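Our consortium's second objective concerns turning raw sequence data into structural hypotheses that experimental partners can test. To show how far this objective has progressed, the report includes one record in full. It was chosen at random from the queue rather than selected for favorable results. The single chain below, 427 residues long, was entered without modification.
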Amino acid sequence: MSAVVVVGAQWGDEGKGKVIDFLAEQADVVVRHQGGNNAGHTVVVNDQEFKLHLVPSGILYPDTVCVIANGVVIDPKVLLGELDYLTKRGVDVSRLKISSKAHLVMPYHAILDAVNEDRRGDQKIGTTLRGIGPAYMDKAARVGLRVGDLLHPEEFRDRLSRVLKEKNHLLSSAYGAEPFDFDEMYQSFLDYGRALAPYVADTSIIINQAIDRGERVLFEGAQGTMLDIDHGTYPFVTSSHPSAGGAAIGAGVGPTKIDRVYGVAKAYTTRVGDGPFPTELLDEVGHDIRERGHEYGTTTGRPRRVGWLDAVVLRHAVRINGLSGLAVTRLDVLDGIESLKIATAYEYQGERLEEFPDSAWAFRDATPVYETMPGWDESIGMVRRFEDLPENAQRYLRRIEDVVGVPVVLVSVGRERSHTIPLEELF
């Protein structure tokens, strides 16, 4: 196989960064294909922690080409700060390629994000306020600015002038916000463009040529399937396609070139932000899992909501993404919990639902139907083979396979690269 997609199978924060980092050792190219700096992932290498938001985690391997593709929206100030952060920690970032077609997150996008969220009142979505949604709105409205525009100062001046005039009018007349100064914004973004110019390329060509040469290409999604704008828990979703189909469009490759899709899921469930969450735990068990798992957002620091594993959600992810297998992370967080629960179905208005409901109202009011399994007392952080896991941990994983319908292909039992148990060849 030369092209593999890794997606989140829940609401994001599943540990994709670690799984990508583990697979990136075998990859020639790692591609980030959607989202923006509203996502974050943490990778731990030799007790060193790296927090990344835009740069693919493959950058930590010295021979891997890393691509930020056209489907990503980029805040250039954030990206340049991340490159500086990596460089100061001894990471070579010269292998990074940035699509000229990737859209820019502008300063007015963050302001619009904040005022729109505030106006929603008790119907807040729980956005990160990074301007990602408004940037994708401008992309769809065909008024967005792109990375390639920064390399053409006169054309960029003309386009920014027209767009900023409209945005300033909106901000001042509708929201009473201070308008932005054109000259200051123009000069700042020209400076960003000069700094980013060495990395800018037609990344679709780079990716397709790598696949055609038989090189191993790894596609890295941000967020998770349940935040997909079409297939997630709308409207409590992101503004892009974190599902596997988004990789083809967001990277500029045909779907026939993708060989396999893996989903990443925690051994329990978390989500950040508002929206329905049937298996949410609001008791001491949920608090304990949050603290054990350090369940706080990489980007925002917000505490994540915690719940039991939801197999209905995972079956939905299997279907939407065409998953070949499941990587289960954070299994060690469940050490010492006497009994574990898996939601295998929902109950809604007296009806048993085996599949994820098509109605947002049904999902909001659904009650999980649980299956209870015994936990294990042993600490599993040092285990490196599946057969050495406690018997009840093995049973838990096998039951996940049964109720989800795809094999578990990898298990993570800690934060380090070495805390990973592959169950089959993944690349």
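The partners drew two points from this record. The chain has a mean pLDDT of 94. The radius of gyration is 22 Å. Both points have been shared with the crystallography group to help prioritize constructs.
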